[in-house]
UniProtKB/TrEMBL annotation:
Domain HTH lacI-type residues, every copy: 1-55
Pfam families: LacI, Peripla_BP_3
UniProt name for this protein: LacI family transcriptional regulator
Database matches in PANTHER family: LACI-RELATED TRANSCRIPTIONAL REPRESSOR (PTHR30146), RIBOSE OPERON REPRESSOR (PTHR30146:SF95)
InterPro entries: HTH_LacI, LacI/GalR-like_sensor, Lambda_DNA-bd_dom_sf, Peripla_BP_I
Gene3D superfamilies xrefs: 3.40.50.2300, lambda repressor-like DNA-binding domains
One MF term in the entry's GO annotations: DNA-binding transcription factor activity
The organism's place on the tree of life at top rank: Bacteria
Phosphoprotein found in the keyword field: no
Protein keywords: DNA-binding, Repressor, Transcription, Transcription regulation
Amino acid sequence: MTIRDVAKQAGVSIATVSRVLNGSDKVSPDAKQAVDRAMASLNYQKPAIKRRKPTKLFAVIVRNMTNPFFAQLVDVLEEEAYKHGRSILLFNSRNNLQLEKTFMSECVNHKVDGVFLIPRSLKPQHLADLDALPFPVVLLTATSNQTASIGTNHRHGGELVAKYFVEQGYHRIGFIGASDKLSDRFIGFRRELERLGRELPEQRVLAPYTSQSLQAFISREIAQQDTQLEAVFCSDDICASHLYNAMKAMEIARRKQVEVVGFDDTFIAQSLGFSSVRQPMKQIALLGFDKMIAALQDGELEQSPTLLEPTLVVRHAPAITALERAPEILRSE
């Protein structure tokens, strides 16, 4: 008898049978009872746990490697892995859920010891299969009560920006987002503005955006003297840089009078000189690595989320003026 036979007899998925065998509490009582009855009926014997030889290899599945925040996160993970005598296998899902699943299968084929996942989705149905994998999976930058995860309180980050804008006396406030209006950053920002008595009309919200819609937004909400926005919160530093460069290309001389705040506080914000919400990126990476090592040592992954708090970094001039760099150009002699 195999686990497949038990699943067929119980009328459940193979993943559900696996969770029951592994003692997971994420199985309904009815499903557990059905699996127990099927195992008894088929006289199924749980196989002895086989300790597989560690490969000293971790995988990192990143949602978008073009985002400098994720590049910095991977850099910290790679450095920490090196300190522990391990290597990193890197995958870029390009915000594609199917590609993320494909890469997870590749991790199984490569027999990695564990996976750090920057997920495309936090929907329960997308996270349900993680327990059945032969290695621990730790989510980074996003949290879920369903699995081990470490992330940032994005709603609080949005609240920090709203409070800052109100403290500065701004009334004409806008938002530009890379995703839709369901993002925690936008929800926290909008709710805090409402609580503080500031309006955020729909025409001052652009989420998501394209190059054309961004130009139209600037022409309507920033270029006009009588309706010019005083401050704009952007969902990330890339978005903020798009706004900054678009205003520059449209030769809007008043762009410096519009306060722009981004999110992530990457080198983009630091070099262009705008404020940004800083995520505790290094702490996220190090705590995630600690949780992964503990799981490999104890044989069990702590299934709990860890939510870290962001900070708002206010600047009005570039923080990076000159960098000391070693030569990186390949030379023939």
